[in-house]
């Protein structure tokens, strides 16, 4: 089974992925890193949590292992397992173990989606011990300097079966994320897409109205990521309404009546 987790090398502040701070989140993350504190990011899908972690890892000059958590992700996928290689059985570290050995940042995206045994593994790494016991090899790894554990989840998707226990939540400091204020979001979308700022502003107004439908006609509001996609298509010459349909309407619903309603809303915003 292939290990889940991708590694990126921190490159320094000058080459950090673009991220426009909304408040003091960068300062808090840096203080947490300096003091070996784990961080939990809370916020809706597509609001910039993953980009924020990539930005901070580059700014701090640390390697970053990102793990997209899912229903089948088990503790062994993070820690490692014995695999057959060339007729021999060898131990292969998982992304969490590699981060602990290297002093890297390990980011568990949507951690509540993982199996319950994952959070048990995290506990000894989120207190002053900063250790990772590996039962299969008998090792007890102490985290190297620079190791940091970061996790995220979307509170809007939580249900009785997918929540973080208080005993886990209280091991992290938490940062709450939301979609940026309209003027900031327009700057982000313009920067990421290449579409002039003034042409991004109507897209942001439309996104705000679509987010207002969450819990009514829509299960989830439109993400900043999707707005960037729409702006990118428009910047490449696609007609605005077609770009919005492809990037901001179709991803939100399969219901034809709701689609027509969203397109009517688009016409009302754009005229």
UniProtKB/TrEMBL annotation:
Residues 185-268 form the CbbQ/NirQ/NorQ C-terminal domain. This is Nitric oxide reductase Q protein. Keywords: ATP-binding, Nucleotide-binding, Plasmid. Pfam families: AAA_5, CbbQ_C. Residues 38-172 form the ATPase dynein-related AAA domain. Belongs to the CbbQ/NirQ/NorQ/GpvN family. GO terms for molecular function: ATP binding; ATP hydrolysis activity. Gene3D superfamilies: P-loop containing nucleotide triphosphate hydrolases.
